[in-house]
Automatic annotation (TrEMBL):
This is Zn-dependent hydrolase. GO terms for molecular function: hydrolase activity. The lineage of its organism: Bacteria, Pseudomonadati, Pseudomonadota, Alphaproteobacteria, Sphingomonadales. PANTHER family: ALLANTOATE AMIDOHYDROLASE, ALLANTOATE DEIMINASE-RELATED. The keyword Hydrolase applies. It comes from Novosphingobium beihaiensis. NCBIfam families: hydantase, PRK09290.1-5. Pfam families: Peptidase_M20 (PF01546). Coiled coil: none annotated.
Length: 425
């Protein structure tokens, strides 16, 4: 069996980690279209060049390296290995980067063995996946989920506009619309990612084959009562907005038990109290609710239940309840054939595995309705991600890269070549 070389993978991950690395907190600061982000993209293009791959940066800032038949009107559809290169502030070194570096290693192994794929392999480092400007720009652009109006108005939390960030990086935001890839030009899309959750690590399971990406709804909620003096207002005469929110928080488990599934999630992630003074009963509680599930009907049941419970709690505490639905993203299901391929290959390799949903969003979700798309996870130690102490053992990284190599070889080269690789050496 031809093997990936973990030493090269480790070297690549550490090299990319230096772009945006902060000594003070040991975190990575490589937000989309920052100087560090663009430098990391150039580093990846330099690796494409070393491997003799045709390479380019598209209008959305995606860096693309191609191995195999040249691009042209008669070229066969490509197998894409993709993930992102940007990070959240104070992020870890594996999130996104693993999927790009693993793709590089697959190409290296194929070239070392003199294997030229019948279907071209493209390794893509997508842009702006972490949502600095509110989306997953690179993947959305390639799959046609971007509008000119959004490109002209998108801004980050500090009010800095996407079009200005792209201009500073030497890109024209209107060129994003030229990054679209036709479905018939893509044979498959594969993404390997660290889990970013505790399931695989807790169960001591090597691989998580992703069924699909959970749908998400996000609400901005407000419970409005009456601010009162914390000493003078009797407990039974208050309209305490915080008490209403806390009562709802205690109901979340019951809502999921009655209306949800084991894949359901409801989270209150941000809370602001007004007036926000220690000696004043909170007259207003502003908070977010984010709900997730892999089934849109279940999402709707969860949403309806949240609204009913909050309305009831508001009446109990003499509060006014308001909410605004900020977004509703439908679930995205991975291709059954790609999942079956991953399951067959992981069994041949003898790794432990399970199927699971992804509660977090990923580039793959935009490809699920565009082409055959699939994803698998490797464990995150203690489930930590989006933090400096994000870690995945190198042995698990190696197994993930090997599984990707086996899947890509069959998709791009055919079963005969894949079987030959498996028995050689």
């Amino acid at each position: 069996m031809q093997r990936v070389k973990i030493e090269r993978v480790e070297s690549d991950i550490h090299a990319i980690a230096q772009f945006g690395f902060n000594e003070a907190d040991r975190g990575v600061y490589r937000q989309g279209f920052s100087e560090a982000d663009m430098a990391a993209r150039q580093w990846v293009r330099d690796r494409f060049e070393e491997l003799g791959m045709a390479h380019r940066m598209d209008g959305a800032g995606n860096v693309i390296g191609r191995y195999g038949p040249a691009e042209g009107p008669d070229s066969p559809p490509c197998v894409i290995i993709g993930s992102h290169l940007d990070s959240v502030p104070a992020g870890g070194i594996f999130d996104g980067v693993l999927g790009v570096v693993a793709g590089l290693e697959c190409v290296r192994v194929l070239k070392e063995n003199g294997i030229v794929p019948a279907f071209p392999i493209e390794v893509i480092g997508t842009s702006e996946e972490e949502g600095r400007f509110g989306g997953m720009l690179g993947a959305q652009a390639m799959t046609g989920h971007v509008t000119l109006d959004w490109l002209d108005t998108a801004r980050d939390e500090h009010g800095f506009m996407l079009k200005d960030a792209m201009k500073a990086a030497g890109l024209d935001s209107h060129d994003v619309l030229h990054a679209y890839r036709r479905p018939e030009d893509i044979r498959a899309f594969l993404e390997v990612h660290v889990e970013q959750g505790p399931v695989l690590d807790t169960e001591k399971t090597t691989i998580g084959i992703v069924e699909g990406i959970s749908g998400v709804f996000k609400w901005n909620c407000r419970l409005i009562g009456k601010p009162d003096h914390a000493g003078a207002a009797p407990m039974n005469m208050r309209s305490d907005a915080l008490m209403g929110m806390v009562d709802f928080a205690h109901e979340i488990s019951r809502i999921i038990d009655e209306e949800g599934t084991d894949k359901s999630r409801i989270t209150i992630g941000h809370v602001a109290l007004k007036p926000g003074f220690p000696h004043t009963v909170p007259g207003e509680a502003d908070f977010t609710i984010v709900g997730r599930d892999l089934d849109e009907e279940v999402m709707q049941r969860l949403s309806d239940a949240c609204r009913r419970v909050l309305s009831s709690i508001a009446r109990k505490h003499k509060l006014k309840f308001e909410y605004e639905e900020m977004s509703w993203l439908k679930p995205a299901y991975c291709d059954e054939g790609i999942r079956a391929l991953m399951e067959r290959k992981v069994q041949e390799l003898g790794y432990s595995y399970r199927t699971m949903p992804s509660g977090a969003g990923h580039d793959v979700q935009f490809f699920c309705n565009h082409t055959r798309a699939g994803m698998f996870f490797v464990p995150s130690v203690n489930g930590v991600s989006h933090a400096p102490d994000e870690w995945t053992h190198w042995s698990d990284i190696e197994r993930g890269c090997q599984l990707l190599l086996e899947c890509v070889t069959e998709l791009a080269c055919g079963e005969d070549v894949a079987a030959g690789m498996a028995v050689s050496g």
